[in-house]
Amino acid sequence: MTEQPGIIRRPDFAGGGITEEERERMAAHSALWIERAFRTEIADPHLIEMAIKGIYRAANRAEPRVVVVSSPLVMAMAGGIASQLWYLFENNLLGDKSKRNAATRAATDDATYEAVYEAVYKATRAAPDDAPDDATRSVTYFATKAATYEATYKATKAATDDAAGEATYEATYEAAKAATYEATYEATRVATRAALTNWFDLAAEFVGRERAQTTLKAAAGWANAPQGGNMLVSGECFLTAARDILGLRLAPHAAYAYWEQAAINGGFRWVHSKFCLVSDFPEILRVNSRNQPHAEFGPSHRWRDGWSIWHLNGVKVDRWMAESHPDDIDARLVLQIKNVDQRRECIRRMGMGRIISQLDPTVLDAERREVGGEYRLLAVEMNHGEPWRFLQMVNQSTGAVHVEAVPRECRTVRQALNWRRAQNIDHDWFPVQLT
Amino acid sequence: MTREQRRQSDPNQYQQGDVWIERIPKIPAGSEQVKGATLAEGEGHHLHRFAVAADVELYVKDGMRFARVKKETTVEHVTRDGRQGEHDPITLPAGDYQFGQVIEYDYLSEMSREVVD
């Protein structure tokens, strides 16, 4: 037990706040986990396999086949297909073995497509001919998580009387999550949903055309219960800070060690009773000064199979928005982007100087308001007959410039603001608060 | 040349990003109460919501949306896991409100559409 007044440190309990020394160590601890979240080297399959098999053993599950795959997209697609294959096999719905192995390798140069094919093969080949397991993916998912992470989380919360360790959670969460978990989760979710149509043929090769759609839905369903690996480390930072800095020694820590190693050594996971697919780290992960995913002239994230995603200041964008040189971007195209966050980021990239020089707008009206700041009503020749009209305004919280189209009936800023609120140029809109 | 607009703000009107909120005398009779405390949800990770769900009741009628604010409360712009978005919070006094999303004009379809963030 420590000598400092009010501070209680025992293997089974930590209370009374944290010391200055602990606070400093927690900052370093948080930085360590952020570094782990942003790993870009090739994952070590041996370390991953040891960690994953340990998790399954801790949950009293048979050791699975562990396959390291090249990206979260490959994990989701291969996971959906392999799960369906196992289901069909175990329920005797697949037909004879020769038929099961009859899928031919797709002739394609798409590395991601190829990687999915290979991962499915690894996750299902030499399937045992007996002992069908009725454990569904979700049962295994919850069992493995409960036996390791959740047990440790509950025990740690019960053994601390204040938010000491949670400071590390918040710090890591804020610093890393936008560029890791959020960006990757969302991109994978979108990509797997798009795959419902794009990847039909590949799924059909394995499970037949009649079951291909169900299989692809299973892949998209991955998003309902992901295990995040190093892409979701704020919880690990908290739990390990309580253990390594506050000195807790709790019974669930032994099982948790496997989960911790899986979070250090691999990315997102597809957890199944028979196999576990673990995504490799991306080879590129770029962020801005606020650790939001961000890259100009290239992807914010790229995995080794080539799957890439693009972000500007945390906003997911299309490739051309991030990679085109600002001099080459057509301002008229930018003004037609429907998503206002994407449009704002493109305007930010181009700068109002380029926008104005390309469009050469006529300023029809300008107005400064105490609440709302500076507005301008612009007329822009868009090569579609009469000029279009745009309201230019400034986000009062961030200072970013927005440009939104308004109809030609708006002849003043006031009318444009009124129309934007109520589709009525005479309905005055002078909000008392605007953020 | 920029004109200074000196007209006083309307104490019944509020705006957070693409969400407008306007105080009304009373929520129309026959409005149906709905669950939740979210005013708008964008395509991205952000949503506009009342910070304390217990402080408000939401209603709909004929496609219009209303909120009964039972005591002074805050509207926040946050990510799905509760982190601050790009618009600062606004504070609403107790009262009945109508709310919705601002619109912009789509010249290609010649229609208006809700702003998507």
Overview of this structure, please?
The complex is a heterodimer of chains A (435) and B (117). With 435 residues, chain A is α+β, with helices and mostly antiparallel strands. Chain A has 16 helices and 14 strands. In chain A, the strands form four sheets. Chain A has a four-stranded antiparallel beta sheet with strand order 6-7-8-9, sandwiched between helices. In chain A, strands 10-11-12-13 form a four-stranded antiparallel beta sheet, with helices on both faces. Chain A has a three-stranded mixed beta sheet with strand order 3-5-4, sandwiched between helices. In chain A, a hairpin with a 2-residue loop joins strand 8 and strand 9. In chain A, helix 2 (45-58) packs antiparallel against helix 12 and helix 3 packs across helix 8 (178-198). Chain A is globular, with a radius of gyration of 27 Å. Chain A starts with 7 loop residues before the first strand and ends with a strand. Chain B is mainly beta and 117 residues long. Chain B has strands at residues 3-5, 10-16, 19-24, 32-34, 38-41, 46-50, 56-61, 64-69, 73-79, 90-92, 95-101, 103-106, 111-114. In chain B, the strands form three sheets. In chain B, strands 2-3-11-8-7-4 form a six-stranded antiparallel beta sheet, with no helix packed on it. Chain B has a four-stranded antiparallel beta sheet with strand order 5-6-9-10, with no helix packed on it. In chain B, strands 12-13 form a two-stranded antiparallel sheet. In chain B, a hairpin with a 4-residue loop joins strand 5 (38-41) and strand 6 (46-50). Chain B is globular and about 45 Å long. The termini of chain B are far apart. The chains are: A alpha+beta (435), B mainly beta (117).
